[in-house]
Amino acid sequence: MAERGASGGGSGGDSLDKSITLPPDEIFRNLENAKRFAIDIGGSLTKLAYYSTVQHKVAKVRSFDHPGKDVEQDHEPPYEISVQEEITARLHFIKFENTYMEACLDFIRDHLVNTETKVIQATGGGAYKFKDLIEEKLRLKVDKEDVMTCLIKGCNFVLKNIPHEAFMYQKDSDPEFRFQTNHPNIFPYLLVNIGSGVSIVKVETEDRFEWIGGSSIGGGTFWGLGALLTKTKKFDELLQLASRGRHANVDMLVQDIYGGAHQTLGLSGNLIASSFGKSATADREFSKEDMAKSLLHMISNDIGQLACLYAKLHGLDRVYFGGFFIRGHPVTMRTITYSINFFSKGEVQALFLRHEGYLGAIGAFLKGAEQDSPNQYSWGENYAASSGLMSTSPELCPTQRARSGTFDLLEMDRLERPLVNLPLLLDPSSYVPDTVDLTDDALARQYWLTCFEEALDGVVKRAVASQPESIDAAERAEKFRQKYWSKLQTLRHQPFAYGTLTVRSLLDTREHCLNEFNFPDPYSKVKQKENGLALKCFQSVTRSLDSLGWEERQLALVKGLLAGNVFDWGAKAVSDVLESDPQFGFEEAKRKLQERPWLVDSYTKWLQRLKGPPHKCALIFADNSGIDIILGVFPFVRELLFRGTEVILACNSGPALNDVTYSESLIVAEHIAAMDPIICSALREDRLLLVQTGSSSPCLDLSRLDKGLAVLVRERGADLVVIEGMGRAIHTNYHALLCCESLKLAVVKNAWLAERLGGQLFSVIFKYEVPTE
Amino acid sequence: MKGSSPNTKEETVPAQYGWLWCPFRRYRTRPRNKSKVFPWFGLDIGGTLVKLVYFEPKDITAEEEKEEVESLKSIRKYLTSNVAYGSTGIRDVHLELKDLTLCGRKGNLHFIRFPTHDMPAFIQMGKDKNFSSLHTVFCATGGGSYKFEQDFLTIGDLQLHKLDELDCLIKGILYIDSVGFNGRSQCYYFENPADSEKCQKLPFDLKNPYPLLLVNIGSGVSILAVYSKDNYKRVTGTSLGGGTFFGLCCLLTGCSTFEEALEMASRGDSTKVDKLVRDIYGGDYERFGLPGWAVASSFGNMMSKEKREAASKEDLARATLITITNNIGSIARMCALNENINQVVFVGNFLRVNTIAMRLLAYALDYWSKGQLKALFSEHEGYFGAVGALLELLKIP
């Protein structure tokens, strides 16, 4: 019941080595801004949590005093960019072995500046043992928090805030990890915590949970009884013994009782009839490996059986397992999963958590931080700083293993605004943003990892070029390169390290790494320039559109959207098409587009729809800055407005590649409004609304969108969703089902992907979908 | 991980053997009419023990006596005049049911057990005593009826009539309960089981037997929900049973008999081995309503080297007994709740001379169910399968 951490690493808990293998300032980051500490001390692992504020540079855009006036005349940019310092909140979680405790506490004391901090929340079985040391070293008062309350608070937190937190473990599949998409409603669930004993807790709401049962046969039984039987003292070594043993030498199996007859009975003779049944004899020796294996099966099966009985009694089908017995050990996850499947006949799912080891620390921290209402915010895992899920199998990746044995980090950024589901999702619980699961699809994984590796030089160059006035830009860019490169290598070996691997997660990780080294917006100047150029062409583009007949115009608008989308500085194939003549480039791009019929082509159906009554309100997710938003999206918006459809134009809250940000979209809209009466009046009359998505990703997760956007979508009764661009409409959401009409359009600017989809480079996807009744 | 373990393909899930083939196996071939020819045996060949019941007719007429073949007489004499057979066979004299009327005959029912590993010797004895000449049918149940079927045939020239284990178990229990125990009650329970001063074993009248949760603790454990004589289902089972207790005791203490293991356990202190709630929380864990005396982690203290060295063999035996017993109690309780049954009958040879386990089951069931569940026991704890087999021989009912 009580947590008793197991040694995480092969080095074990008895080592007296106090040296820290990584530079401590890379582990205990931002200590100078740290406040609110919490600590979870297990039998051999300690998890420290703190809150800090991170100051980092952001690129802000600001209109000149006379917007729009000069655009036509000279080559001045449409707005100015200034780099400012911004402060964001971050949660730090560090896991280390208890042997480092003193060294870590010393380091923290020496670097702790904030004097407001007076207490430290402590939980875990070891909190009592280290209380005096902590109070003496840190001069903070230790406040003890209840272990289970902390665990559950932590569990709720990660389930809500970390996508792909929970996974199933399937021993024979590749990879063994199968991540779950976040269920919109995480309650109720069963948490089975296997520490030295087993606690079974039913969690019904954020604050309501109930201990419904437990068992004394748990990790302590495996460890204690195992130590007696095998004279092996360490938990990890016992597990290793077990993984080599044959339990049939110790257990009495069905075939031992039935002889050969079990075959004719149509049942498996390998089922265990009596654990340790064969050892009921004084005249035989049994190997340590075999006994350890038998013990492991006995305990895992027993826990699985009890968990199923409790799940059944309470009508629950989701059971999360945690505690040091599990803690990422493939051997125990495997036996528990097997047992659950057997006893529930597949009706109950055994789920494990990526950040299981941090639950207590997260919970203790949240208890202490209640006045900051951390639960009112949304948080996101920072891929740049977090260690990810380490394989605990030494055979698989010895170097990774060694690292996780010393220090393991998790950092979470507080998002500016709470994130919620798009209310228009047909079934939020089954929505999966990503089109291809790279953990699953090895070919695609190899391709994309290589693709991102090859693109890295270019990204580094772009980053350096974006800060010409900075003296250390090259140095930081190099650090960025190393960081992202090493992430890519980790993902090659352990695709499951951060949950399901997707093109989106690769892109997001790159953005996090860029931010980490203070390259908040490497494309800001490129976007500024392109926006300026495109704005100059806006009026001539709309004039030529207006001169067309209705039907011709509709096709031209769609082609414009698609052509605009070709201009994507993030995609290699077009990066050098248009430095000089954007108008020419735009026409050129239209010519580059595939002729109809497109690769996916429901344009005729769309045109038919346009002949009908106007939509009430369209929600448009924009993609790139410059030509795309200004010459592609805005004319399309203008036509919708003209038809009498209201438009919600959603752009990213933060920068990602050359994607248009919300603040850029405001300025762009302002400039266009100055030129165009339709846009102008629509903005004034709130028929055109600009909102932010809450995201800083080049892709789109419709289950994590800004709450304000969701509210607006509901208020205005949006009945059309337009998603454009590869990142948002192909890499993600290609298969997303909505409960209203939707338009997904993109130009496939990647030859490999085009081929996969059965087309060629610059193939067009135009997917207009109407939900079936 | 893949490939690192030689056992990846093995299925390794616990089960108690009996339930595996119960509902879909029915035996069409019935014993022929010779069935009422003596001797009357019922045999239950388990994973650890063979249970044999033998009906000794006491109303043998002079004529019958004259006709009784020599081999039959010799068997009767051998079984009824001894209390031990060879070095391992034992007749539980105290369980003998006297003056029983069975199939119109009056006699005594004898209860004999011996280890399954002596089965070859038993078959050999059958051959030596020329059993096959009696043209009797051996009704047998338990997994061993499969395992040893061929040996019975080839060595002893005896045809086994194999019977469903759970059918036999239930028939046996109902029958034995109906005939009582030489005028006393078959079924009993414990009052104040936790209090060694006030604890009392009291008779229980199982007049309303259904529904009933039947927990049979042999080498492994089977749990059955019984709704009527013919309507029952196997709910679950666990591999943590009597075999586990004895097996672990052998490994931990070097003991060699079940009785020795129990005797050691009776002198041990499990709190030296187990980590209790109070060892962790200093007292009760009030947040969850857990009493301080409850075991938080079985063998949990054995994680520490010092405590390992301080624990005696007796302590280890006691802890093993407590661990296995509590676990069975816990699973039984959950099954009772899921099946909505409140009387739980524990049977099986694990409970033989095992008052510690019975009292613990009684207490745990009562405490954790807040008095909702009642643990019941039965005097002939391990013999019901064999009795059921005998009844099948006589086609009763």
Description:
The complex is a heterodimer of chains A (773) and B (397). Chain A is built from 23 helices and 25 strands. Helices cover 39% and strands 19% of the residues of chain A. In chain A, helix 3 crosses helix 9 and helix 15 packs antiparallel against helix 18. Chain A is of the alpha/beta class and 773 residues long. Chain A has four domains: 177 residues, Nucleotidyltransferase, domain 5 (2-Layer Sandwich); 153 residues, ATPase, nucleotide binding domain (Nucleotidyltransferase, domain 5); 76 residues, AF1104-like (Up-down Bundle); 244 residues, 3-Layer(aba) Sandwich (Rossmann fold), CATH 3.40.50.10880. Chain A is globular and about 100 Å long. In chain A, strand 13, helix 8 and strand 14 form a beta-alpha-beta unit. In chain A, the strands form five sheets. Chain A has a seven-stranded mixed β-sheet with strand order 5-4-1-2-3-16-15, sandwiched between helices. With 397 residues, chain B is an alpha+beta fold. Chain B is built from 13 helices and 17 strands. In chain B, the strands form three sheets. In chain B, strands 1, 2, 3, 4, 5, 6, 7 and 8 form an eight-stranded mixed β-sheet that branches. The longest helix of chain B has 27 residues. Chain B is globular and about 75 Å long. The N terminus of chain B is likely disordered. Chains A and B meet through strand 10, helix 4, helix 6, strand 12 and helix 7 of A and helix 4, helix 7, helix 9, strand 15 and helix 11 of B.
- Global structural class of chain A: alpha/beta
Helix content percent band of chain B: 25-40%
The total beta strand count of chain A reads 25
Unreliable residue stretches of chain B: 1-35
Uncertain segments of chain A are 1-20, 68-72, 391-405, 570-575
Major β-sheet of chain A, in short?
7 strands, mixed
CATH topology of the largest domain in chain A: Rossmann fold
Report the average pLDDT across residues of chain A: 87
Distance between the termini of chain B: 56 Å
